[in-house]
Design brief:
alpha/beta
């Protein structure tokens, strides 16, 4: 399968967690050895949020705050590359053209953000569309899409399946600003809607869930 995996900020706390990064790298190697082709997009995590908030407080524009987040997401990508070494494409693509060229090497391609105004979730959706992926997996720190924020509302219910159009409506309600993209964002939802690539939002804090969804187990939330 051609797999695009977005690894959320849970894997990248302000102090890099070698154990988590190593666990993800081991999973990627296992999937590669099983014959899958992989593109991995890393989020900015807690460090990106800290720097973005500091820059914003100092009066910086949202565009520059986005660039700060992109830089840090690419640093996170570098950490996984460091563990994978020759099994990874050794550069982080910064455009769709570079991404497609890197993918043809049959290496594991790992990247962060692309451009201001575009979240790493949107980059993952673009990547999936660019290579006509078999599946797009968004590994985050919650079990899937809920009717409300499950951390604030204990009565919020997980949605097993959701249409891309409905998800888009949900994503249009929060204010869109640098470092604040929730599980998905409007651009990512639009790309998933038009590409029709099977997309799942799952709890990536349990890395085994990634293998489960690839094998067809019904976990998380499926975007249809």
């Amino acid at each position: 399968m051609k797999i695009v995996l977005k690894i959320g900020g849970h894997a990248f706390p302000s102090k890099p967690n070698i154990k988590i990064i190593s666990s993800y790298a081991q999973l990627l190697m296992k999937l590669k050895n099983a014959g899958h082709r992989l593109i991995v997009i890393t989020g900015g995590g807690e460090t990106a949020r800290l720097y973005i908030n500091a820059a914003r407080a100092l009066g910086e524009s949202e565009a520059i705050c986005d660039i700060i987040g992109i830089i840090i997401s690419r640093l996170n990508a570098r950490l996984i590359i460091a563990k994978l070494q020759e099994d990874a494409f050794l550069e982080t693509p910064t455009s769709v053209e570079e991404l497609r060229t890197a993918f043809e090497t049959n290496k594991i391609v790992i990247l962060g953000g692309f451009q201001p105004g575009q979240s790493t979730n949107a980059v993952a959706a673009v990547a999936a569309e660019a290579i006509n992926a078999d599946i797009l997996i968004n590994a985050t720190n919650v079990e899937g899409v809920f009717t409300d924020d499950p951390k604030r509302n204990l009565k919020a219910k997980k949605i097993d399946k959701i249409k891309a159009e409905k998800l888009l409506q949900m994503m249009l309600s929060p204010k869109l600003s640098a470092g604040n993209y929730q599980l998905f964002d409007p651009v990512a939802a639009k790309i998933v809607k038009r590409s029709k690539i099977p997309t799942w939002i799952i709890d990536g804090t349990n890395i085994e869930n990634i293998e489960k969804v690839i094998k067809g187990e019904k976990i998380g939330t499926e975007i249809i």
